[in-house]
Structure formats: C-alpha cells, structure tokens
Specification:
single chain; 313 residues; mainly alpha
Length: 313
Amino acid sequence: MPDQKHPHHLAICIGVAIASGAWGIYWLPQRALMEYGLTGGWGTIAQFGLCLAAFCPVALYRWQKGLPIGFDLPLVGGLIGGGIVCYSNAFLLTDVVRVLVFFYLTPVWATIFELVFLRIRPNRVRAVSLALSLTGVWIVIGKEGGIPLPQNYGDWLALASGMMVAGGATRSQAIQPEGFFPLQWAYFFYGTLIALLQYPLLSDALGPMPSIDAWVASLPLLVLLVVVFLIPSNMMLISSPSRIGAGLFSILILSELVFGAVSAAILADEAFGWREAIGCGLIVIAGLTEVLLSRGPISHSPREPVRPDTASR
C-alpha cells in the first residue's frame, strides 16, 4: 500500500472541515422546521426523501445509459447514510451531550477499522492527533466526569451512529468508488430506507404524521436545505474518505463540534467558557497536526475501476 497523499489532499481536507463545520449550525434550520410543525424525526425523513427525489431524474438517465447508479454500494451508503439517520434520531431519545459523547468516538472506531480491515497501523502523528482530538471532545462535553456508558435507546443509537459512519468511511477507503453520483445516490437511497425502517421503533418519539399545512409551510425551507446545504456538503463528505483515509476524515469532521459550540453560544446563549475554548482549540490543533504532518496513505490508485460494494474482502 503506497504511503502517499492524494494530489489535492490539502484542498480536500479543508473542504471536509468546512462542510463538517456547516453541519455544526444545522441545528438552526432543524429548530425552524420544528416551529413549522415538522416535529420529531419527520424533518430527517423529509430531507432524505427530497434529496433522493432530486437525484431520480439523473438516476433514470444513467440507468438508460448503462452507467452505475449506486445500488451496488449498500455498505457505504447504508453505513454512512444510516449512521447520520441514527445520529439525528438519537437527539429525540437522549440528552444532546450524551449524543455528542458517543458519536464523537468516531475517530477511535475509524482507526480500529483501518487497522483491522485495511492493515493500516496508526503512526505517531495519528496517535498524537487522536489523543488531542479526544481530549478536546472530553473537555467540551465530558463535564460530568466518569466513563460515559449507554443507558438508553438514544445512547445506543448515538454510539451506533459513530461506528456506522466510521465503518462506511473505511469501506469507501477500501473499495475506492469513483464519481459523485453513485455515492450520493447510495447515501440518500439506503439512508432513506433506514430512516423509514426505524419508524416503528421510534414511533413514540417521531409522533404522528404532520398535517398538510405543516408540510406546505416547511416545503420552501426543506427545498432550500436540500439544494444549498445537504447535497453540496454531502458531495464533499461522502467522497472524501476514499481520498484522504477514514481516520483523517473522522478527525476532520470534529469541526462540527467546534462550529456547533460557538454558534450555540452566540445564537442560543449557551455556555462557552474555558472548557469550550480549550477543547475546541485542541480539536483544531489535532486536525492541523494530522493534515500537515501525516502522509495520508491511499489504498488504491485513483484510476482503478470501481469495485462492487458487495464484494467480499
């Protein structure tokens, strides 16, 4: 396995950090949707469904031309898309702090998966960046002290979401899929399926189907979210693990925590004291350490043909 960087390594890393940071202020439109009456997880289902609908014409065109659509990427799409669904729905069932604690174990899972499945041993730079990032996360959200253990269904969903995202990123790194569209379709298609399949388990938290008036009132915001935010950010995030590695990817997405803490402090009058400042600073340093000092191994040449996601390894 050649130990080299992608030709656009730095630009991709910056893009991942910015896209992830944008997810840190995702709570703003989510709260707006709730004010329109799209309570519970219906906003998540609606957003995934609209993204899938937006891709349908392109999927039909590619199918007619015999081009890959993304149905052959169930592991990448199901793990990453399903992980984000679990992450979103976990907020309905447990405290926000506990969701963050369990989800942001993602760098640990990604490093373990790289070692087990890709035989990539973490180097000294990874060890340092991982220690810095986890320390930063712990300082920001580990205010109660002790070892956080899952205590309810929401905690388990949050823990599963981090493992699924890390697993999907590792799988993407392993098979090196090419092209934005198949990855995007797999993400939204399999993510939507998982969101719908979760409904029987989360029916109490999701609540009844919103009224027609609520759907109509929220539609402009939903469309704006899909076109301006969800599709562009996911195009960057989903295609990145295969180019920069799952471990580095899982550290860079911690920028969501930084943006989330700062935006909540400014716009929602939530606490931002020495814990948040020091923790966010350590996370930024961890990302810079990994980006600038690590050589970022790539498992396959970018010109290698796409292999089916269902292929055994």
